[in-house]
Amino acid sequence: LCHNTDHSKDCITTRRCSLCSRRRIEPWEFEVFFDPQELRKEACLLYEIKWGASSKTWRSSGKNTTNHVEVNFLEKLTSEGRLGPSTCCSITWFLSWSPCWECSTAIREFLSQHPGVTLVIFVARLFQHMDRRNRQGLKDLVTSGVTVQVMSVSEYCYCWENFVNYPPGKAAQWPRYPPRWMLMYALELYCIILGLPPCLKISRRHQKQLTFFSLTPQYCHYKMIPPYILLATGLLQPSVPWR
Q1: I want to staple 196 with a disulfide (CB 3.0 to 4.6 A). Which of 137, 191, 229, 230 is the partner?
Q2: pLDDT-derived band at 74, boundaries 50, 70, 90
Q3: What residue stretches are annotated with the CMP/dCMP-type deaminase domain (predicted)?
Q4: Could you tell me the pTM of the whole model?
């Protein structure tokens, strides 16, 4: 069966569709994959599709196999046969890791072949963000018209409510991750889009499995990044007027 959802109810049709079959992930999966402090190797994708002017939303999830989860999605969507040169649809991804440079290239090629498709990507973490190829890949995605943002508190809440098989009465008990980690990733994504050098450094002590985040700003970061972003991450301190 194919489940077509509109936030409040499921509309079940008799046409079988492997791409659109809705599967909620378990709470522990969401917490393991999308915790911004964890550097889990595997990636998870939560996605929703709206076709044309329809108000219905198709939702499902995917994980890495022998291919990255982004490539799996594109191949499956193409194989379903619903996409034509003039097909219009909007796609939203919630990714536990941002796309690598190879996936970024595949995404841009897919969108160039399907000009009626729009894509918005929310990411929980930045994948190997020190790698110049990955940084350029994300920048090229944004330049080509793809919206790429770091997940905020509202996206975590939305995913919990719409993609997670939470226990009855537990809709409001989504994991509250510290906003500071989200802000640090958002700052680094801003650096990537502007073509600035890395500002965020992530290190891990394998013995205790502890992850450490630190910011190492340069003059160019203070010059190019808006003050409100620097204030949110603690790189600037609010001025206090003298009385």
Answers
A1: 191
A2: very high
A3: 27-141
A4: 0.83
